Amino acid sequence: MSAYKSFVYVEEIAKYVGEEVTLNGWVYNTRGKGKLQFVLLRDGTGVIQCVAFKQNLSEEVFELTKQLTQESSIKVIGKVVASEKAPGGFEIDVTDLKVYQLAVDYPITPKEHGVEFLINQRHLWLRSSRQHAIMRVRAAVMKAIRDFFDGNGFKLMDSPILTPNACEGTSTLFETEYFDLGKAYLSQSGQLYAEATALALGKVYTFGPAFRAERSKTRKHLTEFWMVEPEMAFFELNDDMDLAEDLVEYIVQYCLKTCQKELATLERDITKLEKVRRPFYRMSYTEAVDWLVKNDVPLTKKVDGEDVEIRPFPWGEDFGTPQEEAIMEQFDKPLIIHRYPTDIKAFYMKRDPQNEKVVLAMDMLGPEKAGEIIGGSQREDNYDLLYQRIIHENLPEEEFKWYLDLRKYGSVPHSGFGLGVERVVKWITGADHIREVIPFPRMSYRIAP
Ligand code: 4AD
Ligand code: MG
């Protein structure tokens, strides 16, 4: 790696103690007086204190260090010194310094700014220490996911984004004109195509953006988010739940191991994350409803835009955030709720042979108000039953012909799930809004920057 590098990074600085190195970066902060200037330099991998002593520098360069402003881009040449007093344990004894560009009036100053202001400055806000730490955890989560699947024999199979039909119901589709072929839709999920590739390759995962035209202004919804979706031939619901637990345990433990600094910057209580070890908890939807009724947790429903409470919680309704949070208060690890009512779940889910009223679905809820991080199921593998569901849901039969073919030519039990990357990053980082955990968030009321 270093063969073509004319400079070093802060994160590898320990290797160079006693040597003269070149660093590139941006000015995070400056202070000093008289003959001494301290420049905090950030280079994306870390922050290091650079000490400029008047006597070690030319007059011109020393003057330059005094003019540096927040976020000016600079090159620093100097000797690496181990120093207990310096933040991070090392500092640079500056011998030369060059300015790429002097920044004037950087809008984000160390004082407190409102989130509305910051989100409008998202292209710059990403440089702040908290946002920077969150983005590094995000990158670690992405890597953990890929490592987990690649290391367990899964093949990465990309599903298309432009599709002729709906996967997760028709109400949240973004549509666009598609030449002479009418309307195309942005994919809500790569699942249907993953089912086809799973029947070709056995174990696959698709990993990409998903689009939902969600109007809801919650802390957990984006209109564009990233989802990883494994799909496995011959997996039944229990195998699917086991895999989901393995994956989540792997992601959390990987972040604990590789993101210690970031989690410290975020002041995350990691003792809570350390508990995320298999086995997690499991209960059926029916057991969850019994618990809600016993504890008198009301259902809240929007009536004319107002939240109205309905007691007691009726079997057959979907859980909202209040129910999920009430259930999760008992648990310090994720919980899988399985076997939901058929009517509130997607058309492709397999009916439970033991009970026609429920499907072999499973959702994983995270602790600490993480909400639903995974949704999945065993898929309907019977041609006739799937066909009836497609008709029942008024889905265009013609567009689902290829999907039905999968039940015609060597149909097998198969299962899969989708994990929402941002939901997981929000939980692990403790960020209070999902917009902070994706570089450029897209919500019903925001498409810029
Ligand atoms: O539960 P969902 O809708 O399931 C599916 O899309 C299935 N086709 C997945 C499958 O079985 N292959 O979405 C899966 C996950 C949710 O549990 C949640 O973590 C996340 O995707 N998610 C969202 N994240 C952010 N913003 C949104 N609007 C989201 N909608 C779903
Ligand atoms: Mg879901």
Structure description:
With 449 residues, this protein is α+β, with helices and mostly antiparallel strands. It has two domains: 10-101, Nucleic acid-binding proteins (OB fold (Dihydrolipoamide Acetyltransferase, E2P)), CATH 2.40.50; 122-437, Bira Bifunctional Protein, Domain 2 (BirA Bifunctional Protein, domain 2, 2-Layer Sandwich), CATH 3.30.930.10. 29% of the residues lie in helices and 29% in strands. It is built from 13 helices and 19 strands. It has helices at 59-67, 115-120, 122-125, 129-151, 191-201, 237-258, 260-265, 270-274, 285-294, 321-328, 383-392, 401-405, 421-429; strands spanning 20-33, 36-42, 47-53, 73-82, 90-101, 155-156, 162-163, 175-177, 183-186, 203-211, 224-233, 281-284, 299-303, 306-310, 335-341, 351-352, 355-366, 371-378, 414-420. Strands 6, 10, 11, 12, 15, 16, 17, 18 and 19 form a nine-stranded mixed beta sheet that branches. The protein has a five-stranded mixed beta barrel with strand order 1-2-3-5-4. A three-stranded antiparallel beta sheet has the order 7-9-8, with no helix packed on it. It is elongated and about 85 Å long. The model has no long low-confidence stretch (mean pLDDT 96). Magnesium ion binds next to β18. The site of magnesium ion has 3 residues, from β18.
